[in-house]
Structure formats: C-alpha cells, structure tokens
C-alpha cells in the first residue's frame, strides 16, 4: 500500500476527528499541496478534505474519499506527475490549471469548494495533452500573474456576457466588442492566435459540418484578470463539458485556455452527483 492510500485509510478511520482539524495554510496552498500529494504520496494534505462530506463530480470516480482513494490505488506506481501552473480563489472556491501525467499526459482544470477550511466538493475537466497549436502555444503556457483584483466583478461580468452573446446565442455581430482588435492569444490546440484565427477555424469546421454550440453556463469564477467559465454544450455530435479560462486586460479578452471533455453516458457514471 503506497503512502497516499495509507493516509486515506487513516483519514477514513479517524472520521469526525479529522473533520474538525484545522491548518494554518490558506485554501490555495491546501489545494496545491493536495494535488501534488497525488504524485508524492505526502500524507498530510489528505487531512484538508472533510472526510464526513466530500462530494465528487468527476463521473469516473466514486463519491467520497473512498472513491478518490480507489482511483489513486489504480494508478501505476510512479506514473503520476502533477504540476499546478495556475491557482485562483473566488470566495469559497479554489480553481487550478494543472499539467498532469494521470493515466497518461493530460491538462486539467480542478475546482474545489471549501467549508470551514475543509474541502467538501470537487469538479474537474481533463483533456489529453495536445501538441502546440498553429501559433506555437501549448495548452498550459503563458502568463500566470494575477492582477486587477479590484476588477474581478467587472471581468466576470464581461466574460459571462461574451459566452452568452457569442457562444450560446450566436450574436456574432457583437464579437468585436469583446476584443482589442485582432490582439488575442490562443491556447486551444487547434486554433491560432488572433481573433481572425478563431473566425477562420470555426468557418473551416462549419464547412465540414462540425459546429461548436454552448448550451448553458454552470459556473463563472474569477480572480482579478482571470475568469473561468464552466459550461456544457456540443462540439459536433458530442455532448461536452467546456472549461474556458480567459485573461482580461483593460476590459477586453486578451488570452484564452480551455479543456473540453465529453460527458460520459449516465449508465457509466460512478457517482450520482452529475458533472456540474
């Protein structure tokens, strides 16, 4: 039994005692430490999870701490790598952008909800790591600096309006309002930089009968100049979960990262909490 599985077993045994323990670390630090522990087997970060209440929304994982432990136990020994590149906090939510080797190379967004300093709920989206896009950007590189904390509310509103106007309602005549001309850095593996690159790619897909359609926004989380939008919709015939991270500068969308994950059929779910 590796260290991580052992620590999970101890946490489950201690139960309510673990639920009440506290840490001097802030919530961002707890999340980064917990994710890194998947790689290192460090015992302590498991204690940041409320063993009495841990709601899991990764549909391939069983509910609660036991479900989390079962996945870790299935990992080939020494195979996992975790490098959290970006971490943000919005109220009781911490969300991260991470470069994983987790049953193979993947890029992921994770969202954790806290109550009384303990993690009580988790959502994520994972996509196989792709080669750099036509402009040479990877799915994870780019700036990490958080600024404009006083503009968090305004930036969240801007990005929500963009997703609703353009990606849900298809009001393409409003597209230019959200950008500073053609200045736009893109990290989607298939799309080059610039607003014109986005338009060209979507046009080419449409010619092939492949359409990108967002149906509903589930969450908008932000800190300063970064905003994460969690949505569901369709890419072609596939029903997908979309996690889009935007960087805003001077009231305009400047940079974009995303992870797209198909939503598995309900009969294959390992928990009943739903993707969102």
Automatic annotation (TrEMBL):
SUPFAM superfamilies: NTF2-like (SSF54427). Gene3D superfamilies: 3.10.450.50. It comes from Flectobacillus longus. Residues 159-256 form the SnoaL-like domain. InterPro entries: Cyclase_SnoaL-like (IPR009959), NTF2-like_dom_sf (IPR032710), SnoaL-like (IPR037401). Pfam families: SnoaL_2. The lineage of its organism: Bacteria, Pseudomonadati, Bacteroidota, Cytophagia, Cytophagales. It comes from the Bacteria. This is SnoaL-like domain-containing protein.
């Amino acid at each position: 039994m590796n260290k991580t599985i052992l620590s999970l077993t101890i946490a489950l045994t201690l139960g309510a005692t673990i639920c009440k323990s506290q840490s001097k670390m802030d919530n961002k630090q707890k999340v980064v430490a917990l994710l890194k522990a998947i790689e290192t087997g460090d015992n302590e970060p498991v204690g940041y999870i409320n063993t009495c209440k841990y709601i899991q929304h990764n549909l391939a994982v069983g509910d609660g701490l036991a479900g989390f432990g079962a996945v870790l136990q299935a990992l080939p020994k020494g195979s996992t790598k975790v490098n959290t590149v970006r971490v943000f906090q919005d109220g009781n939510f911490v969300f991260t952008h991470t470069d994983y080797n987790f049953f193979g190379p993947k890029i992921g967004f994770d969202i954790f909800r806290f109550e009384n300093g303990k993690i009580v709920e988790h959502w994520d989206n994972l996509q196989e790591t792709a080669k750099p896009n036509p402009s040479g950007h990877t799915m994870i590189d780019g700036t990490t600096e958080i600024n404009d904390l006083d503009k968090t509310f305004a930036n969240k509103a801007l990005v929500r309006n963009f997703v609703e106007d353009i990606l849900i309602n298809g009001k393409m005549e409003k597209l230019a309002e959200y950008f500073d001309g053609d200045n736009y850095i893109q990290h989607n593996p298939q799309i080059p930089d610039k607003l014109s690159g986005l338009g060209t790619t979507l046009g080419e897909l449409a010619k092939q009968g492949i359409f990108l359609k967002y149906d509903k926004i589930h969450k908008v989380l932000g800190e300063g100049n970064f905003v994460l939008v969690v949505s569901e919709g369709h890419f072609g015939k596939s029903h997908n979960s979309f996690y889009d991270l935007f960087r805003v500068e001077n009231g305009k969308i400047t940079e974009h990262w995303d992870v797209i994950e198909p939503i598995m059929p309900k009969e294959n779910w390992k928990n009943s909490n739903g993707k969102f």
